[in-house]
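Pipeline run #58 for the internal structure catalog. This entry was flagged by the ingest filter as a single-chain record with no existing model, so it goes straight to prediction. Upstream metadata was stripped on purpose; only the residue string is passed forward. Reviewer on rotation: M.T. Logging verbosity set to normal.
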Amino acid sequence: MAAARSETSKTILNYVIDTSVLPRELDCKRDLRLVTDKHERFFMQSSPDEARLLQMLIKLTGARRTLEVIAVDVSREYYDIGRPFIERASVAGKVDFCEGPALEHLDALLADEGNHGAFDFAFVDGNKPNYMRYHEQLLRLVRVSGVIVYDDKLWVGMVALPPDAPLSDFDRRTSAVMRDLNTMLVADERVDVCQLTIADGVTICRRLV
């Protein structure tokens, strides 16, 4: 999800996107982004620079088998929007969409020991209160030296606000979840951690053990 930014940071971001991201954006990816921009929940999509980061991470890690905890979704609506573009990119055979709660699908994967340590890369942009539970599941599914990426870790900057800041109940709860997760990940000796301020905050974890 894209974060609110100052005018200065927006100018810098637009420069980066215009000069380094969009010139190499595939036509089908661009068209999907433009279609999504017209959806009422357009703000849920990854920003172009974040999408480019994920693409680069997958290439750098040589990932062949990946999990996206949002491609595991409680609704087919967003997948159906993207499906024509997935087909245009000739990767439909590589996508196994799972409809339903992500926790249940991850548990189903874990029930098969053949899936333990079988994934190279995972991207998490699902139900925020479940992030810690996703983490425990993914540490069993992603191989040693594999990568897990968490999205929305700064929650529009609200994680850094004082306790008495005027927030909605939802934002107060979610920012508290993100703060707790940030603290937990840094203390988790099973992973190496890198927190980035790109988009709405991205945390990259590399499984160590």
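catalog note: The beta strands are 66-69, 72-73, 98-99, 119-124, 142-150, 191-196, 202-207.
catalog note: The CA atoms of residues 140 and 183 lie 21 Å apart.
status: ready for reviewer M.T.
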